[in-house]
Design goal:
206 residues; alpha+beta; 7 strands; 15% strand; globular; binds zinc ion
Length: 206
């Protein structure tokens, strides 16, 4: 499915599968583009499965709790910052920090999305969740990943950058953690679509 271009309707975007949106994300990773199509799809599937499984295990541990309450149970403070969301070319919605441990929500970063996501559009993209829920959940995945002993999803699929005889320089794929975090949010909050779709709801500056 082609999602770029002004003709894309919101309905089409909201109906895009997590695999389609995950692949779109992976295509923006500077290293992942070196993987062949089949490997890219396998990596996206792994990330989606890992995010969903991580959400389900937290749901079992904390039945009925939303992301804000789960963060509280895990003793991860959720801080709302009024900082400029724009740093260089990066528009910040939220951030996970391990030292000191916290999830930072950038209120001014999320505000344009909150303004755009009303009525039917909110239902289509968020179901019963709020935009803040989505970002807290996303960062909770990063916390869960940092707290467990399993190999991080970003390092499970590696790209060889350089090979000299038996010596190889390899790197992981950071975008896989973002794809997994989106899948985590989607499962935890029962969202109608992978939250990558939110990128298409509003054109953020610049
Ligand atoms: Zn993230």
């Amino acid at each position: 499915m082609e999602l770029d271009g002004a003709s894309s309707s919101f309905g089409k975007i909201a109906a895009a599968s997590p695999e389609t949106l995950g692949l779109l994300m992976l295509k923006t990773d500077r290293y992942a583009v070196r993987l062949d199509d089949r490997t890219q799809l396998a990596a996206v599937s792994d990330a989606l499965v890992d995010g969903a499984a991580t959400a389900r295990s937290l749901q079992e541990r904390f039945p009925g709790l939303g992301p804000r309450e789960i963060a509280r149970e895990l003793q991860v403070p959720v801080i709302v910052a009024d900082d400029d969301p724009l740093v260089g070319s990066i528009w910040r919605f939220a951030e996970y920090r391990s030292r000191p441990l916290r999830i930072v929500l950038y209120a001014r970063g999320i505000a344009p999305l909150e303004r755009a996501l009303v009525d039917d559009l909110a239902k289509q993209f968020l179901g019963r969740a709020t935009a803040q829920d989505v970002f807290i959940a996303h960062e909770l995945y990063h916390h869960a990943e940092a707290a467990r002993s399993a190999l991080p999803i970003a390092r499970r699929h590696q790209v060889t950058l350089l090979q000299l005889g038996r010596w190889q320089w390899r790197t992981g794929i950071a975008m896989l953690a973002e794809i997994a975090a989106g899948s985590f949010s989607q499962t935890l909050l029962d969202l109608p679509c992978h939250p990558k779709a939110l990128d298409y709801v509003t054109r953020l500056p610049p």
